[in-house]
User: Which sequence fits this backbone?
């Protein structure tokens, strides 16, 4: 891939969001040290860990800049300040958002950058995310968004024999290993901080598509992902935030009769999922999903917009 005679045209800022699990973050940062695309910098964001894990990481990676939050602000609230800081640097051309439970292959960033240069209409390009426990299976290429539902694309499906450096267009991609052009942020703003976990990446991709950017993933750029590592140790937590974010996602996109129809669909959906989980004795997941769904349905939705970039580093709402 890259070599000493290569001209590196894009400067990439890599943002890694950390919360408490320094073992996974350590592995993630160590993998970044093996990348064969040198025109990148790294920012580590601590999402209110307060368990000594960040201090241990600082000892091992003393040269990586840190943004430290006093509380867990979720994905959107965690990465937005780091994105603003990166965009304040005029030489940053794109930002790679990387989960701390994801490991980039050494040539992954190089392949992503090469494809983004070759296909200027692509605004968001994801790595091909595979399961770390079963690397022949994808951990989801993204999602298709319907009128009142979303359908995962490529979830637990075998890696298809596709040309490695030809992007595959998809409706939306996940934020696990997502390269975003600077122009996307400058045109549509940052992530919607009403989402805590889940759906903020889907929301962001749809906004980018509406602004004229294409969304895709690159089959040859591999990221190994430990699925739901940050929530799997707390029963019902993943289901709570999935259901909560689902309601936010659809409520902000529906109005009038469509909004009323969605409320009916959402209630039926909550009941159906809860029944399915109870039948399988997944009681914590059932309670978490119903509770998250009800919270999402009752949340005030007075702002139907996203935080924008300002020179002062603030994030007012754009009408």
Assistant:
């Amino acid at each position: 891939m890259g070599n000493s005679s290569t001209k590196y045209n894009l400067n990439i800022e890599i943002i890694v969001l950390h919360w408490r699990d320094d073992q996974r973050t350590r592995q993630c940062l160590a993998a970044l040290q093996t990348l064969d695309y040198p025109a990148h910098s790294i920012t580590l964001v601590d999402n209110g860990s307060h368990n000594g894990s960040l201090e241990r990481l600082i000892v091992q990676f003393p040269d990586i800049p840190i943004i430290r939050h006093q509380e867990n602000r979720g994905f959107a609230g965690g990465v937005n300040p780091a994105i603003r800081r990166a965009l304040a640097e005029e030489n940053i051309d794109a930002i790679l958002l990387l989960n701390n439970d994801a490991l980039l292959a050494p040539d992954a960033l190089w392949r992503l950058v090469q494809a983004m240069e070759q296909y200027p209409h692509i605004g968001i390009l994801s790595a091909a995310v595979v399961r770390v426990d079963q690397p022949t299976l994808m951990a989801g290429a993204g999602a298709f968004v319907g009128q009142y539902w979303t359908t995962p694309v490529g979830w637990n499906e075998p890696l298809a024999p596709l040309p490695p450096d030809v992007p595959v267009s998809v409706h939306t991609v996940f934020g696990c290993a997502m390269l975003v052009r600077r122009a996307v942020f400058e045109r549509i703003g940052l992530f919607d901080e009403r989402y805590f976990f889940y759906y903020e990446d889907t929301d962001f991709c749809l906004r980018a598509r509406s602004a004229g950017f294409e969304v895709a993933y690159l089959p040859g750029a591999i990221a190994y992902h430990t699925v739901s590592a940050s929530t799997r140790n707390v029963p019902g937590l993943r289901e709570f935030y999935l259901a909560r974010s689902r309601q936010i996602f659809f409520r902000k996109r529906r109005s009038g009769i469509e909004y009323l129809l969605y409320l009916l669909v959402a209630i039926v959906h909550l009941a159906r999922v809860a029944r399915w989980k109870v039948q399988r004795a997944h009681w914590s997941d059932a309670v978490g999903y119903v509770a998250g769904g009800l919270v999402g349905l009752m949340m005030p939705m007075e702002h139907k917009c996203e935080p924008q970039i300002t020179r002062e580093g603030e994030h007012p709402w754009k009408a």
In short: Residues 310-319 have pLDDT under 50 and may be disordered. The first strand starts at residue 12 and ends at 18. DSSP finds nine helices and eleven strands in the chain.
